[in-house]
Amino acid sequence: MSKRRRHSSRLNDRLKEVYCMKREDVKVGCSWIVTLPSTLKEKNEQDQREFFEKTYAFLTERYGGEKNVLSAQVHNDETTPHLHFAFIPVVWDEKKNNVKKSPLKKC
Questions:
Q1: Which of 65, 66, 78 is nearest to 33 (CA)?
Q2: Which residues, 6 or more positions from 47, have their beta carbon under 8 angstroms from its beta carbon?
Q3: Most exposed among 42, 70, 80, 93, judged by the fewest C-beta atoms under 10 Å?
Q4: 97 torsion bin: left (phi>0), alpha (psi -120 to 50), beta (else)
Q5: From residue 64, how far is each of 18, 49, 61, 80, 81 by CA, in Å?
Q6: Could you give the CA distance from residue 98 to residue 19 in angstroms, rounded to a whole number?
Q7: What is the side-by-side strand order in the sheet with 30-35?
C-alpha cells in the first residue's frame, strides 16, 4: 500500500469516529512546518533529534494524540532541518460531550 493511500485510509477511518459538520470552514487536515532553531544548527545530531522528538510530542498532545497524527517527517534536504507535521484538527465539544472536527481558524 502506498504512503498516500495509508494516509487517506487513516484519515477516513478517523473521520468516521468524530463528528464533522458539513461547513466550508471545516478542514479535514492541517499541518505545521517547524524549523530547527538557529541556536541548535551547530549542535550534534542527538541534540537536534531531541528537539524534533519534543516538538512531535508537544504537537501530538496538543492535537489529541497519535490517532489524529497523519504524518511527521524531518527533512534534512535543505539548508535548515525542519519537521513536517500533518494532523486532523479534532477538538472536544463541551455541548455534545464528544470529539469533533475543528474549524480551520482553531488549528
A1: 78
A2: 40
A3: 42
A4: left
A5: 12, 23, 5, 28, 25
A6: 8
A7: 30-35, 82-87, 69-75
Instruction: Give Cα separations from 90 to 50, 59, 104 (angstroms).
Output: 26, 12, 10
Cell numbers given for 4: 498516500
Query: Mean pLDDT per 10-residue run, the chain (107 residues)?
Result: 63 76 73 95 94 97 89 90 91 64 49
Cβ contacts of residue 90 below 8 Å, gap of 6+? Answer: 14, 18, 63, 64, 68, 99, 100, 101, 102
CB 81 within 8 A of CB 96: no
Closest to 106 measured CA to CA, from 15, 69, 93: 93
Length of the chain (residues): 107
Its sign, for the CA torsion 53, 55, 60, 61, is positive
| Dist. CA 4–CA 69, nearest whole Å | 14
Which residue reads 460531550 in cell numbers? Answer: 97
Residues 56 and 83: beta-carbon distance below 8 Å: yes
